[in-house]
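dumping this here before i forget
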Amino acid sequence: MKCTNRKQPPGAWDRIAELLRVTGMTANAFARHLGLPRGENLYQIKRGNNGISYDLARRIHAQYPNYSLSWLLTGEGEAGSGIGATVALPFCGDVWTLESPASGCNKRLVISSWAACGAEVAVACPDGVPGTGLRSPILLLRRCDPAGPLLYGNLYLVELAGMRLLRTVDAGGDDGTLRLSREGCGDTLVDRAAVASLWLVCAAIDRLVR
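structure:
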């Protein structure tokens, strides 16, 4: 006997709308958060012209790992599974005590796995992050391979020539260089090979209530 009451999986735009609801972002803000040049990619999904591509699903999953690739691509499975779970991130007092693995960070920040956004470590940033409005945040970071694929347009902690800098990272050009930028400063082009370590800022906690 054929089952006729099986619940249909949510459509592509329904899945995007769910993400906009839980993040509290507009389509344009969400697109920028994912490193997309503009929100038109998402509006094409809303109009029914496009589905969720693998690249878009990968970008979303990298920021919100509790949303599986299968759900993002097909709507099958549970959305946002594991939101109630927690993770204990190694907590470092500043960017200079950050190591990989984070053995030098003997404190722990307990946070929901959903809010952690796939981060591996938490770092205090008492001097704030210029150009972001974050005055004394805790940054949640995940280590990336400087030679691998990056989420352009996002904030990274970049270790370069003995310095650790918070910069927005974009593609520098066809030669594989990276463009580092910060509000109020000129852009800097660097070779990937010159980057000693690279950490994606997955999320920031601006005010932590104890």
